[in-house]
Q: What sequence folds into this?
C-alpha cells in the first residue's frame, strides 16, 4: 500500500489526492489509526476522528515523513498499547481503550526526551492525529469554523462562550 | 523586426511600474517576461482551495522540501503557493558553501510581485547619507528629497495602509487607514512605549488596501496573499500596473521570453535592443528600441548585463568601472523570538490581517552608540495559538475536543532585520564553465555576512528579549540564529548608482554610465540597503526614471 501511495503522490492533483486518501481505507494500519484518531477526537455533536477520515492524513504523514514522522513511530505506539492491554489494542472495548490511552498519554507528556521510547513515539504521533482531524472538512468546518473570506472588517473584541475558534490559521508550518 | 520606443526586461514589481509609466507617457512598450503568462484571477489556481482538498492539507510535501523546493521553501512557501516558486533543480545557480545564498524566485508574469511580503517603507535621509559618511559602498548620488515626490506618487497608486508616526528613521507617507494592532500588539506597543524613550512599536505599513481603489477591493483579511488575490487587494503587477499599462493600448507583452542580452552599438554608445530567447522553442530574436529598462530582479538584471559583453564592453555592458556585479547585498535576518502574553485571553480579533508590527531603527541615530555601524529594525506580529496545540500536550477525548473549540493562548514575536554593509567582495558573476538549462552561463552568487551584521544581529536579539520580557510571559526562541544571505529576498546592488562613472555602474537617473539609454531601476541600482523592506524605493526609482526616459524619447535624445 505504501508503494502505491508513493506512486500516486508526486504531482498529486486534488482529485488524485482524494483517490489516494480513499485508498488508505485498505491499508492494514487503518483500523488502529482510526481507533486512535477517534479516541483522541471522539464524536460529539460533530464527527469524530474516524468518521471524519483523519486517519488518511496520519498514514500519509507516516509514509511521507510529514513533520519528520516515520512508520516506526506508529509501530512503537501500537506495540506499547498492545502490551498495556494484553491483547491487540484495536480489539479492546472503547471504555477500556479510553482509560488505557488516557493514562498512556498523560505519562508520555511527563517527559520530553526523544529517546525512541513509546512515550516519545506518542508525542511524535499525536500532532498528526490532531492535525489529521482538524484538516478534514468535518474538523475544519463543522467542529471549528472555517472562514475563507472574513471580510474587510478588523476589530478586537471580547470573547463570548459561544465563540468557536477558526481553523484557518492552523494549516502549514510544522505539525 | 519590430521597433519599440522602450523594452522592459521583466514584469515584476519594477517591470510592471516601468511598463505602466512608459505607456502612460505615450511610449510603445514591449515587456519581456521569462516565465509563462499568469492572468489575474483566472490563474490563481489554489486561491479558494480548502485545506481538505490539498494533497498535504496545507503542509508542504517533505519531498518538495528536501528536493525541488529545498531553497524556495525559505521564502514563506506554502503548499498552496508552491507553484509560484521556481524548481531548484531546474533553475539552478552556483553559490559557494561559505555563502549558501538562497535565491528565491518566481518565474512567471508578475514575478515576485505576486509573492512579496508587501511591506512598504520609505528610506530615510540618513540611509542615503551613510555610505558617504562611513566610507562603505558607493556614495548615493541622490538623496531622500529626490525620491520624496516619487514615493508619494507610488504610494497613492499602490495603496498602503499605515500610520503616520513622525519617526526620523522611517519617514511618513501617503496612507490608507491602518490595519492597526491586535490586542497583544497593542499591549506590546504600550509596554515598549512606557519603558523606552528611543523606540516605538508601530503597525506595519503594507500594500494591502483598506479602502478600495478602482476595481481593487479592500483586503478581505484572509492572510493568504501568496496564492494570488482575485480581489486585487494587494499590489501586484497583475492587480495594478499591468491593467494600467494595457489600458493605454501601447503595451506588447511577450511571455516565455528570456532576455539573453542587450545589443549595443559601440559607435553611438547606445543600446539598440535586446536579444530574446523563446524558452519554449529555443529560438532567438532581436527586438529594437530607443530605450531599455532592465527590471529583471537584481541578480538577473546583473546577469543580463554581464551576458551583454561585447568587444567594446568585454566585462559586460556598463562595466567600465569594473563594479558590475559588485556590492551585492541583502538584509541580514534573524533573532526570531516569541513570547506568550498573559492577561488578555478574553480578547480576540476578527479576520486575519496580513500585517504585523515594526520597530523602526533607533540605534546609531545622530551619534555612534554601538560597536557596529548603522543599524536594524524589528519586524514582528502576533496571533493566538491554533488547534495544533492539541497535539503537543496531554489530554484526549471530549475534554480535548471541547478545549480546542476556543482559541489558544496569545503569542507575539519579533525578528531583526539588519542593514547589510555594502562590500565589494560580495558578488554576482557568471560561471566560466557551467550553463543553465537555456545554455546561458550559470549565475554565480557569493554573498556573505560580515562581523558588522552579526554584531548588529546579536544586539538586536538582546533588545528583542528585553522588550518581549516586558510582557511577563514565557520567552520562546523560535529561530535565534541568523539566516543565510538571500533569505530576506531583498537582494540589492550589483549596478550601484553613483556620481563618478569610474566608481559606479549607473548614474543618478538609473542610466548606465556607459549606455545612457539603458536604465536599471530594480534593486540592482541600490547603493545601500537601509534596514527596511526596499520594494517601495525600487518603485519610486522606477517611476522617476521612466518619467525622465519618456521625456528624453519625446525630445529625441534617444
A:
Amino acid at each position: 500500500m505504501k508503494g502505491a501511495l508513493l506512486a500516486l503522490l508526486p504531482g498529486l492533483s486534488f482529485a488524485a489526492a482524494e483517490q489516494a486518501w480513499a485508498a488508505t481505507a485498505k491499508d492494514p494500519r487503518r483500523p488502529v489509526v482510526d481507533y486512535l484518531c477517534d479516541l483522541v477526537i471522539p464524536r460529539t455533536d460533530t464527527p469524530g476522528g474516524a468518521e471524519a477520515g483523519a486517519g488518511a492524513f496520519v498514514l500519509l504523514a507516516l509514509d511521507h515523513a510529514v513533520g519528520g514522522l516515520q512508520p516506526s513511530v506508529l509501530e512503537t505506539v501500537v506495540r506499547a498499547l498492545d502490551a498495556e492491554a494484553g491483547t491487540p489494542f484495536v480489539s479492546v472495548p472503547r471504555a477500556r481503550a479510553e482509560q488505557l490511552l488516557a493514562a498512556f498519554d498523560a505519562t508520555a507528556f511527563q517527559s520530553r526526551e526523544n529517546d525512541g521510547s513509546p512515550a516519545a513515539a506518542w508525542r511524535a504521533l499525536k500532532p498528526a492525529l490532531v492535525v489529521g482531524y482538524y484538516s478534514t472538512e468535518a474538523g475544519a468546518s463543522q467542529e471549528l469554523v472555517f472562514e475563507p473570506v472574513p471580510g474587510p472588517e478588523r476589530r478586537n473584541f471580547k470573547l463570548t462562550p459561544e465563540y468557536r475558534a477558526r481553523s484557518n490559521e492552523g494549516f502549514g508550518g510544522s505539525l | 523586426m519590430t521597433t519599440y520606443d522602450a523594452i522592459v526586461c521583466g514584469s515584476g514589481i519594477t517591470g510592471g511600474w516601468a511598463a505602466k509609466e512608459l505607456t502612460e507617457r505615450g511610449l510603445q512598450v514591449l515587456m519581456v517576461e521569462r516565465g509563462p503568462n499568469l492572468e489575474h484571477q483566472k490563474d490563481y489556481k489554489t486561491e479558494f482551495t480548502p485545506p481538505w482538498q490539498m494533497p498535504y492539507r496545507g503542509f508542504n510535501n517533505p519531498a518538495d522540501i528536501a528536493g525541488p523546493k529545498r531553497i524556495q521553501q525559505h521564502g514563506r512557501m506554502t503548499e498552496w503557493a508552491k507553484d509560484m516558486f521556481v524548481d531548484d533543480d531546474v533553475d539552478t545557480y552556483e553559490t559557494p558553501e561559505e555563502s549558501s545564498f538562497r535565491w528565491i524566485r518566481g518565474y512567471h508574469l508578475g514575478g515576485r510581485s505576486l509573492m512579496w511580503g508587501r511591506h512598504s517603507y520609505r528610506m530615510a535621509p540618513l540611509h542615503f547619507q551613510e555610505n558617504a559618511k562611513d566610507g562603505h559602498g558607493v556614495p548615493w548620488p541622490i538623496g531622500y528629497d529626490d525620491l520624496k515626490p516619487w514615493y508619494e506618487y507610488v504610494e497613492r497608486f499602490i495603496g498602503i495602509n499605515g500610520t503616520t508616526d513622525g519617526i526620523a528613521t522611517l519617514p511618513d507617507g501617503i496612507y490608507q487607514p491602518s490595519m492597526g494592532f491586535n490586542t497583544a500588539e497593542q499591549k506590546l506597543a504600550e509596554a515598549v512605549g512606557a519603558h523606552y524613550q528611543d523606540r516605538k512599536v508601530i503597525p506595519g505599513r503594507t500594500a494591502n488596501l483598506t479602502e478600495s481603489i478602482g476595481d481593487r477591493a479592500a483586503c478581505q483579511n484572509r492572510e493568504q496573499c501568496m496564492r494570488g488575490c482575485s480581489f486585487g487587494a494587494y499590489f501586484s503587477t497583475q492587480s495594478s500596473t499591468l491593467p494600467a499599462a494595457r489600458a493605454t493600448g501601447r503595451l506588447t507583452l511577450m511571455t516565455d521570453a528570456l532576455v539573453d542580452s542587450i545589443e549595443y552599438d559601440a559607435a553611438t554608445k547606445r543600446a539598440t535592443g535586446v536579444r530574446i530567447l523563446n524558452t519554449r522553442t529555443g529560438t532567438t530574436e532581436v527586438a529594437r528600441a530607443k530605450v531599455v529598462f532592465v527590471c529583471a530582479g537584481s541578480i538577473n538584471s546583473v546577469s543580463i548585463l554581464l551576458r551583454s559583453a561585447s568587444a567594446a564592453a568585454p566585462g559586460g555592458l556598463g562595466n567600465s568601472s569594473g563594479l558590475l556585479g559588485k556590492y551585492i547585498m541583502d538584509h541580514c535576518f534573524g533573532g526570531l523570538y516569541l513570547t506568550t502574553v498573559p492577561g488578555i485571553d478574553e480578547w480576540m480579533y476578527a479576520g486575519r490581517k496580513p500585517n504585523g508590527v515594526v520597530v523602526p531603527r533607533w540605534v546609531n541615530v545622530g551619534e555612534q552608540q554601538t560597536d557596529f555601524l548603522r543599524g536594524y529594525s524589528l519586524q514582528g506580529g502576533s496571533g493566538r495559538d491554533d488547534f495544533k496545540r492539541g497535539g503537543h500536550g496531554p489530554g484526549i477525548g471530549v475534554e480535548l475536543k471541547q478545549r480546542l473549540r476556543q482559541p489558544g493562548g496569545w503569542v507575539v514575536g519579533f525578528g531583526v532585520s539588519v542593514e547589510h554593509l555594502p562590500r565589494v567582495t560580495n558578488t554576482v558573476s557568471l560561471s566560466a564553465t557551467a550553463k543553465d538549462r537555456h545554455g546561458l552561463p550559470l549565475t554565480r552568487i557569493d554573498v556573505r555576512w560580515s562581523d558588522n551584521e552579526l554584531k548588529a544581529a546579536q544586539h538586536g536579539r538582546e533588545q528583542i528579549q528585553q522588550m518581549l520580557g516586558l510582557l511577563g510571559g514565557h520567552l520562546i526562541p523560535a529561530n535565534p540564529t541568523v539566516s543565510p544571505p538571500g533569505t530576506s529576498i531583498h537582494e540589492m546592488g550589483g549596478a550601484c548608482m553613483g556620481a563618478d562613472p569610474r566608481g559606479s555602474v549607473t548614474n543618478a537617473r538609473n542610466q548606465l554610465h556607459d549606455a545612457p539609454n539603458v536604465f536599471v531601476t530594480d534593486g540592482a541600482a541600490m547603493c545601500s540597503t537601509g534596514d527596511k523592506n526596499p520594494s517601495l524605493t525600487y518603485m519610486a526609482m522606477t517611476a522617476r526614471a521612466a518619467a525622465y526616459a519618456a521625456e528624453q524619447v519625446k525630445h529625441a535624445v534617444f
Summary: Chain A is about 55% helix and 0% strand. Residues 1-12 of chain A have pLDDT under 50 and may be disordered. The beta strands of chain A are 156-158. The two ends of chain A are 24 Å apart (CA to CA).
